[in-house]
Design brief:
The protein is mainly beta. The longest helix is centred in the first third of the chain and has 12 residues. It contains three helices and twelve strands, in the order E-H-E-H-E-E-E-E-E-E-H-E-E-E-E. It has one domain: Jelly Rolls (Sandwich). It binds 2-oxoglutaric acid. 2-oxoglutaric acid binds next to strand 3, strand 9 and strand 12.
Length: about 190
């Protein structure tokens, strides 16, 4: 298992039913190739952070995906990732976060997407916060790691990336850099 810094073991995923954390899901070469592919494609600027949508365009305001929003099959350069997933996603959103940017607490649209969602981290790591009522857990998502949310983790817990420039993990302050995440979903 890859250490964060100084060979410290990767943090264990919090005990949330349906949450899986897979460090080193891809290699550094695969990560570099993905970032290059992503950076050759146009970014959308309609949110506070830049995004790219593949498969279907998600309507953030209406919180819907419709047949009209179909963009085409997922591009071939995503295949090395999608082939390794245990489900067949047909929608991917690429999010770009600079230090200080995040995403507010949410459950991914229930009527839009199926019961399994996966998110791959590239570039920088960042803490993801999971909340269910009074219960809260932090998980530091290392670069090249994948999280899978299904069951309670997908439906009963919100997830968020807090808007800050650094994270404290096991007492160590880790500055954030540019982080790109790819979230894979199946449109219902
Ligand atoms: O950046 C991430 O890992 C999470 C992205 C996310 O939650 C979303 O796009 O809904």
């Amino acid at each position: 298992m890859t250490g964060l810094l100084f060979d410290i073991p990767a943090p264990a995923a919090p005990d949330i039913p349906g949450l899986q954390y897979l460090p080193d899901f891809i290699t550094e070469d695969e990560e570099k190739a993905l970032v290059e592919d992503i950076d050759q494609r146009p970014w959308l600027n309609d949110l506070k952070r830049r995004v790219q949508h593949y498969g279907y365009k998600y309507d953030y305001k209406a919180r819907t995906v419709t047949d009209d929003s179909y963009l085409g099959p997922l591009p071939g350069w995503l295949m090395p990732i999608t082939q390794k997933l245990s489900f067949k996603p047909d929608q991917t959103i690429v999010n770009e976060y600079f230090p200080g940017q995040g995403i507010s607490a949410h459950v991914d649209c229930v009527p839009c997407f199926g019961d399994t969602i996966a998110s791959l981290s590239l570039g920088s790591g960042a803490v993801m916060q999971f909340t269910n009522g009074q219960e809260k857990h932090d998980l530091y998502l290392e670069p090249r790691s994948l999280i899978i949310l299904s069951g309670p983790a997908r439906y009963e817990w919100t997830h968020a990336i807090p808007t800050r420039k650094s994270d404290v993990v096991d007492g160590l302050k880790i500055e954030r850099g540019r982080r790109i995440s790819l979230t894979f979903r199946t449109v219902i």
